[in-house]
Amino acid sequence: MKLRRILAYFGVAALLSGMAHAQTIGIVTTPAGSYSNSAGAAVAKMLVDKAKLRVVVQPQASTGFEEVETGTAQFNMSNSFDATFYATGTGEYQAMGPHKNLRMVAALIPYRVAMHARNDSGINTIADLKGKRVSSAFNAQKTIGRIIEAHLETAGLSYKDVISVPTPNVVRQADDFKAGKVDTLFFALGSAAVKEANASVGGLRVLEVSDSPEAMKRAQKILPGSYVMKVDPSPALEGFTKPTNVIAFDMVMVTNASVADDVIYKVTKALYENKADMAATFRPFAMLNPRSIAKSVDGVPHHPGALKFYREIGLIK
């Protein structure tokens, strides 16, 4: 598989490449096979090819903010609401307090996420999950439980209305789904894990969310900044037979305030200029709008290196 070869390449070869820059840049992502991991691999390949930087992808079982905080990685591929929670010490990070050194680099592409069911399960809507087995807890990746809860809320449900099946992270719940231990699979559209599950169980169906103002108000209480996107059927996406509403929120690339301005400037410029190269590795990057990458995130100021580039091209005044 193309992405697997790329991930293996960045696990070893990027460390050995004879490039001019001595520093190896780490991009921390969620586990291998996840949406942000695939996106991180595409960004890493582009930075090696176009910005001539040494880059290594660092998949983690957790959200990966701690690695950026401690300096064991320079960048994190995350989502906008989780970055806000971590920076401000709210949500899942309330007990940790605020982290004032987190900085924005760029808003990238939407996470289009969905609950999936087997085609032959008889589960057709989010409301049909009542009384069904749904992955829960996510002790190593609390964000996923929050997103699933938001999906349930679109149908007026909560975890009290389903059978909770604890799991540590998003990849393990995909394994549980394939093994028949749970009745629904949560994942970002286009992820390798969704493709594997689709082949494993004989076909998937995406469960549509309601786009009514009342349903989204309930979801946004749990998932600030989320919105509805209508997704058309595509050979690249499993589970769609008609245009379907799904929940979406922004993928962001964040860093630490201590990372050198010139490194952030070079990375930001490369992200802005090389959409096609990233999309050639990870197709969802075709959704990237370079003119929107300076979008702000609550509680996370832009890094000065990113601000310098955005001001030069007129995205931020």
Report on this structure.
The protein is of the alpha/beta class. The chain has 11 helices and 10 strands. The protein has 2 domains: 2-110 and 251-312, Periplasmic binding protein-like II (D-Maltodextrin-Binding Protein, domain 2, 3-Layer(aba) Sandwich); 112-249, D-Maltodextrin-Binding Protein, domain 2 (3-Layer(aba) Sandwich), CATH 3.40.190. Helix content is 37%, strand content 22%. The strands form 2 sheets. Strands 1, 2, 3, 4, 7, 8, 9 and 10 form an 8-stranded mixed β-sheet that branches. A two-stranded parallel ribbon has the order 5-6.
Topology:
Blueprint: H1 2-16, E1 24-29, H2 35-50, E2 54-59, H3 65-70, E3 75-79, H4 80-88, E4 102-118, E5 133-137, H5 142-154, E6 163-167, H6 170-178, E7 185-188, H7 192-201, E8 204-207, H8 213-222, E9 227-231, E10 244-256, H9 261-273, H10 275-281, H11 304-312
Parallel strand pairs: 1-2, 1-3, 5-6
Antiparallel strand pairs: 3-10, 4-7, 4-8, 4-10, 9-10
Key traits:
single chain, 317 residues, alpha/beta, D-Maltodextrin-Binding Protein, domain 2, 2 domains, eight-stranded mixed sheet, two-stranded parallel ribbon
The gist of it:
Helices cover 37% and strands 22% of the residues.
C-alpha end-to-end distance: 43 Å
The low-confidence runs, each spanning 5 or more residues with pLDDT under 50, are: 7-21
N-to-C order of helices and strands:
HEHEHEHEEHEHEHEHEEHHH
- State the CATH architecture of the largest domain: 3-Layer(aba) Sandwich
CATH topology title of the largest domain: D-Maltodextrin-Binding Protein, domain 2
Count of beta strands: 10
Q: What is the CATH class of the largest domain? A: Alpha Beta
Q: What is the total domain count?
A: 2
Q: Quick one: overall form?
A: globular
Q: What is the fourth-level CATH superfamily of the largest domain?
A: Periplasmic binding protein-like II
Helix content: 25-40%
Rg over C-alpha atoms, rounded to the nearest angstrom: 19 Å
Structural class: alpha/beta
Strand content: 15-25%
Mean pLDDT: 92
Number of helical elements: 11
Main beta sheet:
8 strands, mixed
